[in-house]
Structures are given as structure tokens and as C-alpha cells.
Amino acid sequence: MTKESNQVRESLVFNPEINKVKFSTTGNTACPFCEVDQLTDIYKTDGHKIWLKNKFPTIEKAEMTVIIESDKHVGDVSNYGKKENQEIFRFAFNCWEEMIASGNFRSVLMFKNFGPRSGGSLRHPHFQVVGLPNVNGYAEIKKENFSGLLIHKNSVDITLSDHPVMGFVEFNVSIRSLSAVEKLADQVQKITAFLLSDYMHGHCDSYNLFFYHFEDQYICKIVPRFITSPYFIGYKLSQVNNQDYLEELAETLRKLLKAD
């Protein structure tokens, strides 16, 4: 027996017909993000960075946009040069803030998929910025989802979640002002590089970045991706590693960040 909730959680509506068109168009052709001269509905550019309307808006009643990070097809946050990565983050945050400032959306979500288990469909590096006029994308997000074991504290705070959104391991990198976005970019780069090289003995090949403007902070949540737990899929129950493992992982990151 469970108590019934009086509130029905809002869902995003996915359009499978547009998804069919997307895969029939991009599935067996050259990367569309590499063919820059074929891109349309471009909002803003800065060097090789391009913000444009998503050509295949699979979510109904949403303004779906894409930020192409680089002309490097196999580029990634984890392997860009330091300055290039900082510039990408600055550009992405400016685009995200512009959509928020428009006042046209109940919430504006920014995230990045990387790797075969991340939920992404294109290898070319990109962020997604999605404006939702009718849905509060933060409805299920709580302050405790960003708390946990302290790894680093200065102009950038880093925690290892003890109350993750999905689990098992989630790093939270937060700043209080956009003037520190380059420092946030540096720390995210170090952590993603660690995840793709040393974490789980090199068996991690995918991650997500989720961005939040939450209370007085800008937060990037870094989530290494594996097969999703059935507890979460079936019951929305997140899992977290035991305290000993969390302490060990936090200490590993402290040493890594201090060494740099």
C-alpha cells in the first residue's frame, strides 16, 4: 500500500514521427554538424561555436536548440585545450541565460550528452538548451541533490552527492557568479577526464552534464553513465554508494585537483 499523491508529475511529450525523420535523415549520412554551410536557423556564432534551432524538435511544446561546441568532430570537454573549453562554457552559459532572460519559458534546461550510454544520438560535441513554456523542469530537484561530501571549496565548490538525483555517483560543481564560469569549466574538464580515464578502471565511456540555475548558484552536475538501475526505472528510487566508497572517491578527486 502507498499513499496516493494529489499531484500528477508533468511529463514531456515525445513526437516519434519527428524522430523517424531525424534518423532517416542523419542515420546514414555525413555528420550534419560538420557540414556548417548546410546549417539553418542560426541564432549566434563565435568562431567555431554555433547556437542554432534544433532541426528535429522531438519534444512537443518546447523550444529546442543546440550549441555546436567545436569544428572538432571527436572533440569533448575532457580533451579540449583549456582556453577553448573555457570559451565554450562561456558561450553556452550566455546562450542559456539569453533564453532564460527572454521570459518566454517556465524553465530552460541546458545539458550535454557524451558517449553511447548518455542518451545522445550524434557524436559531434554539442550542448542542448531547451525552453519549456509549460513545464517546470526543476519540479523534482531539491537542494539536497547538490549536497554531499566536500571535495573543493573556493570560488568553485565541488561536492560528491550523498542524495543523488539518479545515482550512483554525481559530482556537483557550483559557482555563485557567472564571472567564475571559466573556473567552473576548468573543474568540469578535470572531472570528465578522470571519469573517462581512471574511474571504474577505465570502463566508463559516457557521461552527462546537467546545468541548473538553482537558488543563488549556477551548478553543473556531472553524472557518469552506465546501465540505469532498475530501482530508478521502476520506482524512481535513486541509489548512492556506501560511505566508505564515497570517502575514497572524494579523496581521490581532492588529490587530483590539488595536484593540478
From TrEMBL:
Q: Name it.
A: Galactose-1-phosphate uridylyltransferase
Look up keyword NAD and say if it applies: no
Q: Which gene encodes it?
A: galT_2
Q: Does the keyword Transferase apply?
A: yes
Q: Which organism is it from?
A: Lactococcus termiticola
**Keyword field:** Nucleotidyltransferase, Transferase
A family per Pfam: DUF4931_N
Q: Name one GO molecular function term.
A: nucleotidyltransferase activity
By its UniProt entry, which InterPro entries does this protein fall under? DUF4931, DUF4931_C, GalT_short, HIT-like_sf
Q: Which segments constitute the DUF4931 domain? A: 26-134, 140-255
